[in-house]
Design brief:
Blueprint lengths: L3 H28 L1 H28 L8 H21 L6 H6 L2 H7 L4 H7 L6 H17 L7 H32 L3 H9 L12 H10 L7 H8 L7 H25 L14
Length: 278
């Protein structure tokens, strides 16, 4: 039987530890001001280039795949904000390889907190702060220029779908990263990560085989187009929230299981078998 008091105490402790990681992250940004400013600038340039491409595309096709410009801008901004927020708080898949090869994982395994939690807490990406802020601004602009009514229900699903998209993206990338630290095929992680950058347009513009692949095999579309489409047209995409929430839970469970599997086969940098900590 689950002891609710112990469970609450554990989650409270983990929340405090994570706040410490965020405090360290903020101190690092404040200390390295030049690097932080450059990272913010890079994020702004990336956002501007993507937005410019969307504007040029819409000028040639004002109603792309049946979506008008405010709706296309919403889909774009939703996808970019999910990617940026995931990179700020859940960028750990890209740090797994370095954590292993520098021997830092050996240290994490000795601490009284799960190693996966520590890997997540230690990884943030500062250049996505500006991207997330500008994406939220674009979301607000697109909402203000839509003809549909935005009530509390739509804003509620916007928050839920954003969180689900972040978890799905993290779960996919962490699964790939965990497998990579056994197979050494690290290019696969970069490939999947780069592919998320193309998920800012309606899926109808892709060929049916590619659409099916991005929906059912590598479900990147569940992190961008489908959640945004459900928020805009819930009657046509009523299945999306249940699929996205189920996928988020499934990827979380699979990610933890894959991490445990990886640790069972991990040998420390000193050649000694590491103790599995779950």
């Amino acid at each position: 039987m689950v002891n609710l008091a112990e469970l609450r105490a554990r989650w409270t402790h983990l929340a405090r530890v994570y706040r410490c990681y965020l405090w360290i992250y903020g101190r690092r940004l404040a200390t390295n001001r030049a690097d932080t400013a450059m990272a913010v600038l890079v994020g702004l340039v990336s956002q501007a280039s993507g937005l410019l491409m969307l504007i040029v595309l819409v000028q040639r096709l004002p109603h792309l795949a049946g979506w008008d410009f405010p709706e296309l801008l919403f889909i774009y901004a939703f996808a970019r904000s999910g990617i940026a927020l995931a990179a700020i708080f859940l960028d750990s898949p890209y740090t797994v390889d370095g954590t292993i090869h520098t021997g830092a994982l050996d240290i994490l395994l000795l601490r009284p907190v799960g190693s996966l939690f520590q890997v997540i807490g230690r990884a943030q990406q500062p250049n996505n702060i500006s991207t997330s802020l500008t994406s939220l601004g674009l979301l607000g602009y697109s909402i203000a220029h839509m003809t549909i009514v935005w009530g509390p229900g739509r804003f509620f699903w916007l928050m839920v779908m954003t969180l689900a998209a972040m978890v799905i993206r993290f779960g996919m990338l962490m699964l790939v990263a965990t497998v990579c630290f056994r197979t050494k095929f690290h290019a696969v992680l970069l490939l999947v990560g780069q592919a998320t950058g193309y998920m800012v347009y309606p899926m109808e513009i892709f060929a049916p085989p590619l659409r099916a692949f991005l929906t059912f095999v590598v479900p990147l579309a569940l992190t961008s187009y489908y959640p945004a489409a459900f928020i805009l047209r819930p009657g046509s995409f009523a299945w999306v929230p249940w699929v996205c929430i189920s996928a988020a839970i499934g990827f979380t469970v699979a990610c933890r299981a894959a991490w445990r599997w990886g640790l069972r086969h991990y040998e420390s940098s000193g050649g000694l078998a590491a103790v599995w900590d779950g």
